[in-house]
Amino acid sequence: MSENNYSELDIAIVGMAGRFPDANNVDELWQNVRDGKCAVQDLSDAQLRAAGVSEDDLAHPDYVKRGIPFMGMAQFDAAFFGYTPKEAAQLDPQQRVFLQTCWHALEHAGMTTDRSSFTGVFAGCGVPAYLLQNLLADSQQDITSLLALTNGNDKDSLATRVSYELDLTGPAVSVQTACSTSLVAVHMACRSLQNYECDSALAGGVWLNLNNEQGYHAPAGGSLSPSGQLSAFGEQADGILIGSGSAAVVLKRVDDALEAGDHILAVIKGSAINNDGKEKVGYTAPSVTGQAGAIEAALEFADIEPNSVGYIETHGTGTTLGDPIEIAALSRAYDGCANQQVAIGSIKANIGHLDSAAGVTGLIKAVQALRHKTLPPSLHCEPLNSKIDFANSPFYVNTELKPWHSDSVRRAAVSSLGMGGTNAHVILEEYVAPEVEYSQATPWYLLPLSGNSQAGLDAQRQALAIKLQQSPEQLPLIAAQLQHSRTAHAIRHAVVVDGAEQAQQLLVRDVSGDKATNHKIGLMFSGQGSQYVTMAQPMLKYVPAFKAHFEEVTALFNDALQDELRRVFIPNDEELLAANQLLGQTRVTQPALFVVAYAMAKCYQSHGVNIEAMLGHSIGEYVAACLSGVMNLETAVKLVTARGEALQKMAPGAMLSVMSDAQSLAPYLNDQLDIAACNSPSNTVVAGTKEAIKALQGELKAADISVTRLHVSHAFHSHLTEPVLGEFAEVLEQAQLSAPNTPFVSNLTGTWITAEQAVSTQYWLDHIRQAVNFVDGVNTLAQQCDVLIEAGPGDTLQKLAKQSVSDSVIVLNSIAHARDLKAPIPPFVKSLGKLWQLGVQIEWSEVSEVAQGVEIALPAYQFDKTEFWVDAKAVKASSTRVTEHTGPELLEPIWQQQLCTVSSPVNLQDQKVVLLASDAPLTTQLSSALTARGATVIQVWQGQTFSALEQNQYRLDCQDASQLNMLHEQVDGFEQIVDCRLLDEHACGYQLLLPLAKWLLGQGQINWTVVASELFSVLGDEAVSAEKATALGILRVIGMEQTAIRCQLREVMQTHRDGSQLQFAAQLVADMANDSQEIAYRGRQRFVRTQQALPTITTQEHEVSSSAVTFITGGLGGVGLVIAKLLAAQGHALVLQTRSALPASEQWAALIADKDSDAKLVGQLTALTALQDAGVRIAVVQADVLDIASLNVAISHAEQSLGSITQVIHAAGLPGGGMLAQMSAEQAAQSMAAKTQGTDNLLAAFKSHKLERMLLCSSLASVLGALGQSDYCAANSYLDAVALQPQPFLVQSVNWDAWANIGMAAGHSVGEDFGIDEVAAQTLLAGIGQSQAPQLYAASLSWQAREDKVAELTERLMQAKAPAPKGHKRPELDTEFEAPESELELQLAAIWSEFLGFDEIGVFDNLFELGGDSLIAIQMLAKVKQQFAVEIEPATFFEDPNLDNLTFLIEEQLLNE
C-alpha cells in the first residue's frame, strides 16, 4: 500500500533509461538481475589478438582474459542531433551514448522536446579516454584543433551539451565525484527541484571502457580482480571489474508529477552527500565515519525510521577493504534494526563497476525492485566474507529471487561511494498508483509516427509493429501516447487502423513518409447531389467537436426543420424510407448540406487546422461565406432555409452530367437548356426541362459522348430558377452582409470573391441562376492552397479537383461516400493523419484523452546505428595523403559546423538597410533585429508599380530598374540590402535575382545579403528546390564581376523561415559580419561547405557487362563521345542522342574522306566508325531533350534494338556565358534550358524505368563560380539540386573540372597539366561508378594542386599577349566613327587594337560589336591596370563598353588619387 502522504520535499522518479552490458534498456537490465545473469565473459586468445592485445600481454602472468563487452559503443545517430560525420567521430562516445540515453529517459517520462522545458541536467562521465587514446595520437595538433577537440570531449561539457541539444533551460551542472558521480547528481537534482530552480531534472552518468573487448592486467595489491570476477561481500572478493554503461532518471516534485498525470515509478524521500575528509588511512581509502554520516543525514532528511527500509542497494565493489567498511558504516546508521532484517545486494556483481554511471544504475535496480515488489539476488557472494559479521548485523545478502512481502509501504536505499571520499545515500519509497485502465471510445486508432529521416521512420514503424504483436491490447494506450507524449520529427507517417492486427499489417509495409513543412489548407464545401441519409452519423457518434458544432447550427433552424433534419441524420430503422424521401426535397437537402459542411469546417478548426481559403459548390458557397464573416451563422441559417424553400417551388426539371467541356457542348444547347456547372475539364452539367434534357441525352449518346442523368427533381442553375428569385430576393435584402475576412472563391467567376460581390443582393441571386464555375474556381484555390479538403459528404469534389489541379496539390475528403457507408474509419480521421504528416500541428486533445498516470507503453526511439570512430593510426595516416596526391581526384562536398568566425560585431548604427520582404514570418523578425542593431530599415514589398506606404515602407516591382532607381532616390541611398524573397517559392531563382543584380552592378560599394531556404541539403534529408538553386549562379559570380559588391548567402531551415524566433534573426544579423560567403543554418548551428577527397581511385580491369545499355544525351558532343568510348570498353551498348540529323551510315566513309566536309561532323563520324569497328552495339537517335515527346520516341526505338536502358548520362547543354551586366532573361532561359528542362524531361521519361543510375554532367563552375558564366553556373546548380531530391533511382550530379580541349572547352587552352583528358576521365568514371553519393566533384588535379594551378593560369591569362592579327579594317558599325584625340584615348585605342586586331578604334565603338567578349575585356582591363596603375571593375566598364567610358573611369580614379 502507499501512504499517499507526501511532503513538498518528496521527489518523484517519472522516467528512466539506460544502456548496460548485455542490456539495451532498464527492463532488460532488470530481467538479467532477476535471472542472476552475469555479463562478464571469458575471452579467447584469438578474440584478444583480434582486439589488438600483444603476445607479450597474453603471456604475462597477471593478464586476466576476461572482460565485460558493451555493444554499439561507436554507434550514434549523428544526423538526429545535427552533427556532421566528422563532428560525431570527434565527439566523446560517452557524450554520444549519454545524449541518446537522456532522450530515452525523457521519452519514458512522457516529455516531448519540441519546445524548451525548464529542466535541469545533473550528470557526469568518466575520463576522456577517447580524446587521449584516439584523437590526440597526432602530435602535430595546433592549439585551434586542440580546443575544438576538447569542446566535444571535456567532462565539463556533458551536462550543457544535453541541455543544448534537448533545449532544456534549467541548471546544467557536470558532476565529478568519481564512483559516486551519478548518485551525487541525483541528490543535486533533488535539491534543485526542492529549491524550485527547475520544474524537472535529468540526473545520471556514463562511463565507457574503450578496451571492453580486451582483458586487463591485475597486479597484486591493485584494485582490479585477478580472478576476473566481482564478488561483492563474498569470501573470494579480490577486486573490481570495469564495465560500461549509461543511465539517467527524470525527476519531478511529487505534487507536480501528480498534477501532470505522470506515471510515478518511485519516490525519493531523502538524500544526502558528504566527504570523508582526512579521517581515513589515505586519499583513496573509505571511511566508516564519513559513510555513516551521509547515511544518517539521508535518513534524517527523509524523516523515516531506519527499520522501515527493506532493501539496500550497496556500493558493493567486492574489494577486501571496501566491503567490510561499507557494512560497518551501514550498521552504524541502521543500528535500530533487528539482526538480518534488511536485504542487501550489489549490481556490480552482474555488470561490473560502471564508475560514473554506477550510482544511478544501482538506483534504477532499487526502483525496479520496488515496482515489482521483488528482492533480487546478489551474485558471487557465497561463501560470505568472513571479515563481516552478518549474523549480528541488521543485514543479510539476498542470494535468491523472492517476493518482497511487507505490511507497510516498501522502502529501499542506495549507497554510492566515490574515490576521494564523496559519499551519497538515497532513500526510496514505493509508489502504488491507483488502478488505471485506458480505453478509447472510437472504433479507430490514429498512430502518428515520425523519424529524423526515412530510415529513422522505418525503424520506428518496425519497433511499433513488434510491440503491438507482443501487446495488442495496448493499442488504445499506444495511440494516445503517440499523439500526446512523443516529439514529432521531420519525416512523418500516420497510420489509421481499426485494430492491432491491421496496425501490424500496415506498419510493416514499405511506405515513404512526408517531410513536415508548412502547407496552406483550403476547404471545399459540397453542393447538392452529394447528400445521403445518415451521412454524418459516424462523426456525430465519435467526434465530439463535430457533434458540438453540429448541434450549435442545427438549433438555429425552426423547430419543424430541426425535426426533419434529425430524421435525415439519425433516423430510426422504420424511418429510413421516409428519411430518404425527405432528404430528396430541396428545402431539406440544402440546410442538411449546410449543417454538415459547417460542422465539418469548425471541426477541422477545433483540431488545429488553419483554413487559408475556401471554395463552395453551389449551396456550399454559403458555408464559405459564413466562415469568412460575410454573414453570421444566424443569417446564414435564415438564407439557406429561404433558398431551399424558394428552389423547392421551381417547376420540375432535370440535369445531365456530360463527359465533355462546356465549349464543345455549345452546339447542342437551346433556350430550354443551360450550362449549370463546369466541374472539370471533362465534366459539364447541363440543366433544363425534362423534355429538353431527354432529347439532349439522345443526341449526345448518338455522338458517342458519355452522359449520366442526375437524381434531382429540379434544374438548378438554369433559366427555370428565374420565377423564384424574387421570393428569395426579399429575404436577401433584409440580410446584413459584410466583406470577407478569409478569402473564398466565387462560383460565378472562378476567381476570388470581391467585397462588392459579397455584400451584393444581385450577386447571390446570380449565384442561383448562373452556372457553377468549379473548374476555374478549384484552380484558383490551388494557386493559394496546396492541400484541398472536401468538407462535406462524399468524395465528388475531391475527384473533380484531382482532374483539374496539378499532381503536387494534395486533395482529401472528410465524410464517406454513400457507397462506403460500411467502411469502419471515416475519411476525416485519415485526412487528419495526413495533415499531421504534412506538418500541421494537430490539437490531439480533440482526438484522444491524455493517459493519466499510465506508464509509457511505446518502444523507445530507434536511433540510427551508424558507427563513428577515429583510430589513432588512421589519423596519422591521413595527415599526409592529400599533399602527396596530385593526379585526378574525386571529392564529395560536405558541410562542417562553423563554431565562431565573427571577428567583430556588425555595426549598422545609422545605416539604411533595404529589406526586400517575403511572406515568411522570419522577415518580420529580421526587421526587428536590424532595428535593434541601430539600422534604419526600409521595407520593400513586391508590387506592380512604385508606391510609398507607411513610413519607410514601399511597394515596387523589383524587376524594374527604374523603380529601383526611384527607391534609391526617395530614401537618399542605402548601404545594405537584405533580400528575403528566396524564402518564398519561385519558378526560377536566377530570373528572380537577375534584374536586381544588374542594377546593383551600377551602384558601387554595397552589401547584398540574401536569406533563402531550400537551397542546401546539409543533414541529408532536407527538401531542396532546384528552381531556387539557380540563384546560386548569380550569388557565386556577381562578386567576381564587381568586387565592390559584397554578396552573402544565408540559407535557413523551414522552421527558421516560419517560426517567430527573434533570437535566430538576431544571430543572422550578427553573422552579416561573418566573412563566410555562404552559411547554412541547421537548428542553432552554422555550417559551411567544404569538400573531402574520396579514397584514391584505382583503375582496374572492368568486368565486361553485356546487359548494360547507356543512354547519353549530347552523345555526339566532345564529352559525350569520350564517355561513350570509355563505357564501350566496359561492354556497354550505347544510345547516343543528338539534336541534329546524322547522314546515313553508308555516306560516312565518303564524308570522312572529303576535305570539304565539316570538321566537327568528320570528328563525330570518325568516332562512331571506330566504335562500330570495335563491335560496340550502338544506336544514334535524333531527339530534342526539350521535347519530351521526341525523347520518348527515341527511347522506345533505342530499346527495341538494344534492350532496356540501364543507365542515363545527361551530357547535353549549352556553354552560355556573358557578363551579368549584358545578360537578358531570355538569353539565360535559352542557355539554361538544355540542362534544366532537359533534366526534368529525362526524369519524366525514365520514371518507370529500372535505371541503375542517372548521371548529370554538371560543372565545378556551379560550385566555385566562373567569371562571365552566371547562367552556366545557374543551370549546373539546378542539376546539383535535382540530385539531392528524392528520385525513383540513383541520380548523381558530377561537377566536372574543365576538360582538356574537349566539349565546351574545345579550342580553349586551359594550360599544361590541367583539364580532364581521356585518361583522367577513365580514372574519375571508375570512382563515380563505385560511389552512391548524390554529388561528386571530378577534379583534374588534387584539390590543393588545382587551386595552385588555377592561380597560376589566371596570372598567365592576365599577362597574355593579344592573339589577334593586326591590319584589319574597322568593321561596319551602326556607331559613327570618331577618332581618339587625347593621349589617354590614343593609348587605350592601341591596347584595343592589340587585342582586337583592328587598325582603327572609335571612341564610341562598342567592344562587343567589335567582336570582343568578356574574356578579352578582362585581359584588356588587366593590361590597363598594369599600364596605368588603376583597377577598373569589369561590371562598371560593361555598363558602357567603349573607349570613351573607359577613359572617363581611368581619369576619375587618377583624379581621386
From TrEMBL:
In what residue span(s) does the Ketosynthase family 3 (KS3) domain sit? 8-430
Where does the source fall among the domains of life? Answer: Bacteria
Decide whether keyword Transcription is in the record: no
InterPro entries reported for this sequence? Ac_transferase_dom_sf (IPR001227), ACP-like_sf (IPR036736), Acyl_transferase_dom (IPR014043), Acyl_Trfase/lysoPLipase (IPR016035), Ketoacyl_synth_AS (IPR018201), Ketoacyl_synth_C (IPR014031), Ketoacyl_synth_N (IPR014030), KR_dom (IPR057326)
Name of the featured protein: Uncharacterized protein
Q: In which pathway does it act?
A: Lipid metabolism; fatty acid biosynthesis
PANTHER family under this entry? FATTY ACID SYNTHASE, INACTIVE PHENOLPHTHIOCEROL SYNTHESIS POLYKETIDE SYNTHASE TYPE I PKS1-RELATED
Which key words are in the record? Answer: Phosphopantetheine, Phosphoprotein, Transferase
GO: which molecular function terms?
Answer: 3-oxoacyl-[acyl-carrier-protein] synthase activity; fatty acid synthase activity
Q: Which family does the record claim for this protein?
A: Belongs to the short-chain dehydrogenases/reductases (SDR) family.
Q: Tell me which Pfam families the record gives.
A: Acyl_transf_1, KAsynt_C_assoc, ketoacyl-synt, Ketoacyl-synt_C, KR, PP-binding
Signal peptide as annotated in the record: none
Q: Which residues form the Carrier domain?
A: 1379-1454
One GO-annotated biological process of the protein = fatty acid biosynthetic process
Q: Does the keyword Transferase apply?
A: yes
